[in-house]
Amino acid sequence: MAEMLVISRTPLREAIKRLLLEGLLERTKGQGHWCALPGEAQVCKILDLRLRLEAYAARRAAARASPQQIMELQQSAARMILLAQAEPPDEKSIVQIDKGNARFHTSVIEASQSQRLMHLIKAAVDISLVSRTFRSFTSEQRRRPAQHHVEIAAGSPRWAERTREVHILSAAETFDPLPPAVPRGRPTP
Predict the structure, then answer these.
(1) Could you tell me the pTM of the whole model?
(2) Which DSSP helix (H) or strand (E) runs through 34?
């Protein structure tokens, strides 16, 4: 692999070590490394963590965001609305939606003004799961989260928190079959 990438083995080893630590790679004895895809139980845990952490981040962001950050969130949400309306979606538009979504959520987390929360969310989010979810969405399922972004960027702390919860629960509903442990409704503390 190092030869193929034209790099030395040291950075490759470090990258593999990091991917293993982040749970994106699995080491199978005698068979090498494999891309780690979350099972149903892991998907449920990921969604539950995201539901709690990201809803809290949205509330904090709405309460603490600067006028510049609010404007950037609103512009990002407007771009997502346009991207989600692309019909029929091709790989290029899905990639743009994926990047726009990541940019929006990163902006919300930054506006929450909590480094610790940022690190917790980064550790909880499974990027491959998010990307796979976009690819399985129907046209309506792509437009709905884009509208959620508009609502989250509106600026009301409580509304942003609740909309973020709906945003996660809406994504959870797209799994077929939906894992039974995925929270339906507001999770209990």
Answers:
(1) 0.73
(2) strand 32-35
Which residues, 6 or more positions from 154, have their beta carbon under 8 angstroms from its beta carbon? 62, 160
Indicate whether 187 belongs to any domain: no
24 and 97 both lie in a single domain: no
CA distance 12 to 25: 13
CATH number at residue 110: 1.20.120.530
Q: How many domains does the chain have?
A: 2
Do 88 and 122 belong together in one domain? yes
- pLDDT 10s digits, 48-87: 889 999 999 999 999 999 999 999 999 999 999 998 887 7
- C-alpha 176/C-alpha 154 separation (Å) is 32
Q: 126 CB contacts (<8 Å, ≥6 apart)?
A: 23, 38, 42, 46
Range of the domain at 93: 40-172
**Buried (b) or exposed (e) across 76-97, using 16+ Cβ within 10 A?**
bbebbeebbeeeebeeebbebb
